[in-house]
Amino acid sequence: MRGKFALIGVGALVLATALGCAGKATAADGTPMTGNPILRTATFRVGPATVTAELALTADQQAKGLMFRKSVPEGKGMLFSFDKDQVLVFWMKNTEAPLSIAWISSDGTIRGLADMKPFSLADVSSEYSVRYALEVGKGWFAKVGVKVGDKVELPPLN
Question: Which fold is adopted by the domain 35-144?
Answer without folding.
Answer: Jelly Rolls (2.60.120)
